[in-house]
Write a structure and sequence with these properties.
This protein has 520 residues and is mostly helical. It contains 21 helices and 5 strands. Pfam families: PMT_2 (PF13231).
Length: 520
């Protein structure tokens, strides 16, 4: 007979309970916190290259959108959803709204999942940690698919936990009365949707399968029925997912591995920076492995201690709890192993394991004595808010909007703009197109020889360098070597942390002047 934890609740839903604070009320509080933290300053930070891709792709007709997604190693579901928002505007706040909404929903789903495993205090703690995590807020303000895949995976894990709380019911034929067919259905649909959103959900598919096989191995009486249902559900999931992979294989002409050639190699600094961002509530740059010193430094240690305490105190042989543990470990372990062959270790690829870490921190909070847990929760909320607030003013994305306005306001009519990466022009033109004054193709080049010839012909040259994506293929030193033949710059400006502009003029011609945007 299955051991039932005293912390578990009997149904797969938010069930109102007696008392002034019901599950539903607390769940609404958590989702409101997640919504407020993600909507605040939603459009303040400029687009960067990946978001520009979302902007362009989401504006395509559905058929072209799907083809473009698969051709560039992306699954299409998020872009189809994002396309619904394009008619309402292409500004940063509008295009990021889906990610913000899914981010808030993920807080509610984590609350429900943790409530099923560990009670209200645990659920409230886990949900608020997710709502206040700078990393999760950052991706809730990113016009990309990460919060959507997190929501699907949390829903799938919740359904899996419900199914495994009673393996005997989970083992019944799906058509039989009293079976756990609803949990199996939600698990299958959520897993399929996650896979059709982002390929990193393959690690979730592996985690769910491992958890189910472990439950079948431990319960001889339920083994046969569980294995049959596992085979049925996963066959349906793969039937809905594999056609996309076949299409991607055809459209990329079999070169599917090239989609990760931009990921920097793994080293200890990148490993530790990622851990701080995903699990320890530090604010990091979106496109660089850089941690900002602002915030409450000890909060991450407190959350880590709670998570370890939760892992120690929860039932060890309960299948539902084992599923959550397997989900926690599978993603980081899988990415580390994969990085031995080809680096895939990126903070955003670890995004869905962060909420599961917070789940165990919530369980640790719930295992504390009642009075102590309320005190710890209060400290955690206050410190979490104080830790999050600096994120909104920090430069977590390059200020290409400011660079665009600086250059457009100072570029002489006969000048040539030199860049080491055309992506910089794409990002600046998103801002300039709103003013109906983008950089035309004939005004810029990434060819230093052409720029040198233009300078010799008597035309000024303005060179711009900055972080474009998460792999900096042309570091600043290489850029300076590229522009060295142009001579000594007559003007150098920096825009924020990542962008530098240098001006070169022929002899006797005055240097272009620029406003002091972003520093000098």
């Amino acid at each position: 007979m299955e051991h039932r934890s005293a912390l578990a609740v009997p149904r797969f839903r938010l069930k109102p309970a007696s008392g002034p604070l019901t599950d539903l009320g607390l769940g609404l509080l958590v989702v409101l916190a997640g919504l407020v933290t993600r909507l605040y300053g939603l459009g303040d930070k400029p687009y960067w290259l990946d978001e520009v891709t979302t902007l362009h792709r989401s504006a395509l007709p559905a058929r072209a959108m799907i083809r473009d997604s698969l051709s560039f190693h992306h699954l299409p579901l998020y872009f189809l959803i994002s396309g619904w928002f394009i008619p309402h505007g292409t500004d940063e706040a509008t295009l990021r709204l889906p990610a913000a909404l899914f981010g808030a929903v993920s807080c509610l789903l984590l609350f429900g999942l943790t409530r099923t495993l560990g009670g209200r205090r645990a659920a409230l703690g886990a949900g608020l940690l997710l709502a206040l995590s700078p990393f999760q807020v950052q991706y809730g303000q990113e016009a990309r698919s990460y919060t959507l895949v997190i929501s699907f995976i949390l829903l799938g894990l919740w359904a899996l936990v419900v199914a495994l709380r009673e393996p005997s019911r989970a083992a019944l034929p799906l058509h039989r009365a009293g079976s756990a067919w609803r949990a199996w259905l939600v698990y299958g649909l959520a897993t399929t949707a996650a896979l059709d959103t982002l390929s990193v959900a393959l690690f979730w598919l592996a985690a769910g399968l491992i958890a189910l096989l472990a439950a079948a191995w431990r319960d001889a009486a339920a083994r046969r029925g569980l294995l049959v249902n596992v085979a049925i559900v996963h066959a349906a999931v793969l039937a809905c997912y594999l056609p996309w992979i076949v299409a991607m294989h055809r459209l990329t002409k079999g070169d599917m591995g090239s989609g990760l050639d931009w990921v920097p190699p793994l080293n200890w600094e990148r490993l530790w920076t990622t851990i701080q961002a995903v699990y320890l509530l530090r604010t990091t740059s979106l496109i660089a492995f850089h941690t900002f010193p602002d915030g409450v430094a000890w909060l991450g240690g407190m959350v880590c201690a709670l998570a370890l305490f939760g892992l120690w105190r929860v039932p060890r042989r309960q299948p539902a709890m084992t599923a959550a543990k397997i989900a926690l470990v599978t993603l980081p372990a899988g990415l580390l192993v994969a990085s031995l062959v080809s680096s895939v270790w990126m903070p955003r690829y670890l995004a869905w394991s962060g909420p599961i870490f917070f789940l165990f921190a919530g369980l640790g909070l719930g295992c504390l004595p009642r009075n102590l847990s309320f005190g710890v929760l209060a400290v955690m909320i206050v410190a979490g808010v104080a830790n999050l607030l600096p994120y909104y003013r920090l430069e977590t994305k390059p200020l290409w909007n400011d660079a665009a306005m600086m250059l457009r306001g100072s570029l002489p009519a006969d000048a040539l703009l030199l860049t080491d990466d055309p992506g910089a022009i794409d990002m600046m033109n998103v801002r300039l197109q709103r003013l109906a004054d983008p950089f035309p193709d004939e005004l810029w080049t990434d060819d230093a020889t052409r720029a040198l010839q233009s300078l010799h012909d008597g035309h000024p040259v303005l060179a711009v360098h900055g972080r474009v994506g998460q792999a900096d293929h042309t570091p600043l030193s290489a850029f300076l070597d590229m522009v060295a033949p142009l001579g000594a710059p007559c003007m150098t400006r920096t825009v924020g942390l990542d962008i530098i502009i240098e001006a070169f003029t022929p002899d006797g011609r005055p240097c272009p002047t620029t406003p002091e945007t972003g520093g000098a």
